[in-house]
Amino acid sequence: MVNFAATCRRIHECITPMIYHADNYKFYSSALLLSAKKGNVAGILKALEFGAPINTPDCTELWILDEEKLTRTPIALRLTSLHWASYHRHLDAMDVLLQRGADPNVVVPVELPFPDTQFRCCASREMTLVYKSHTRFHPLNDKVLRKLIDEGANALYLTLLMSSRYGCYDRDEEGVQGRADAGIDAASLLIRAGASLITHTGLGLHALHQTTCGYDFEMTRFLLEEVGADPNARDPLGNTPMHYMALVAIRGPSWALYRSDMRQLISLLLRHGADINAENTAGYTPLHSLLRSQWGRFSDPDTEACFAFLDAGAYVISERLLDFYLSAGRRPLSEERKQIVLDAETKGRNICLSRVEKDSETDVTDSDSDEVEEGSDFDEDSDVEEDKVELSEKEAKAVNVQLYRLWCRKYDEPEAKEISSWSLDNWEDYWDKMSDWLYGI
Prior knowledge:
Elements: H1 2-5, H2 9-26, H3 30-38, H4 41-49, E1 61-66, E2 71-75, H5 81-88, H6 91-99, H7 122-134, H8 142-150, H9 155-159, H10 173-181, H11 183-192, E3 198-200, E4 205-206, H12 207-213, H13 217-227, H14 241-247, H15 255-271, H16 286-291, H17 300-311, H18 319-328, H19 335-346, H20 353-366, H21 382-411, H22 424-439
Antiparallel strand pairs: 1-2, 3-4
Keywords: ANK repeat, Repeat
Region (Disordered): 357-391
InterPro entries: Ankyrin_rpt, Ankyrin_rpt-contain_sf
């Protein structure tokens, strides 16, 4: 019918409105969504002219199940036309949509069927792992919990994403470069339109968490200097941009690409007032977050990352952690750990080295055979394990508080005022009740 309409102007004028109205009614305004993905401003304007809802959710995506058979299943996403235009950084399309009333703060889930990771950023991946570590034996099943924390990405979140090698779009080099060049302009457009800097409400991600986690120096500088973003912005677990940078400092084979950027980013954040020794809810500083899972398995990238923080003034161990290390197991620091403390002190770091030395020597005298004291469960690296057990309780409570707030928001329930004083046992009882209610037990 479309081809037939192209043969006559009069027929075209008569049929075009019918086609667009049918598209709006039967195909969920696919003309608007597809035009936004391609950055086709004329197509966007035409779809809006004939009544396409500007915030209609997307139903045009296909999930490739089997690459050999090319079997594809349609999937319904809740992304709007502005989300897609923002993801691809189509500036003209974004401008038109915002002028026509698109809401930059509509939040959507961004989890796609495996292995499509085009909407996952480093920050969301790392925080999802933290949440999962505390919900392994949760009364609610993993799918329910995942939906709670996955909900909440706005258009700015998608703009700040790096291009993914597994994404369905932007695979050609020209497209990737064009997207990279338009990053600051796209972010500026959304922020001027009122987009929240909390880009993912489910995980509480801030725009700076995304940019520092992705080692995007120019975007980070833009947010700090042009937007006035808080360099110490915290997520619900107390992590700052410095923490996010540390969390991904040693991930994957691309470390060599980020090595020089890391020191530049740390310097940039410090110039704008970032606290390199800020502690998160679990009591970890950025440096300690980096070391948390790497004791005894140090490689060259690990050492490089450590000294990037040390050279910028990071304490090796915060005062609170130092107290715990010296009281929990009365075990001497390993030579590797002791060397890091010594190197930091040589560089003028503010740490009580004499106290570490004194207590370590005392412990060596008390345990010449290097045996663990009677009644202690510590093994060779037990101080770190005990540290995780003791300090992670606060992190576990923070995870439960965030899940509770997301639960109340999802089911429109009022938040209780006394949750800050709940123990982990209280939380377990609460989630047991919610599980019974949800599953109709």
